[in-house]
Amino acid sequence: MKKPYKEEALRWFTHAKDEFEDADELRKRGRFYLALFHFQQATEKALKAYLYVKVKSVEVFRMRSVGDLSKMAAEVDPDFEQMVKAKDLDRYYILTRYPNGLPGGVPSRYFDDPEEAEKAMRLAKGIVDLVEKKMEELP
Is position 58 within any domain? Predict the structure, then answer.
């Protein structure tokens, strides 16, 4: 049986918040490649949660790009226009996970910049916080 839109969206958003917290713990431990990937994932899932409840289409769950999802969210709600820059997180979707995405490099060693991880954390936090506010406003 299909769950009501808000209930399903809250499941996705709960997971997004948990994933953000886990990513931030990885960042603090210096496991930047994993943190970067999970910041992207948390942002993607938070946007999917919001869009699912707003556009009421399972099609949002097939999307993988934070850039595309944030543009779609901005079309639905202008408050998201300031968050379109989170598209930068998309570069961590593949490169942080697969050695063949980095010719001659190993993701777990290549991603070693704490400032890069801090920037990714701030981008993800901006989306997660805004989605949380929007979800609280839902009837």
Answer: yes
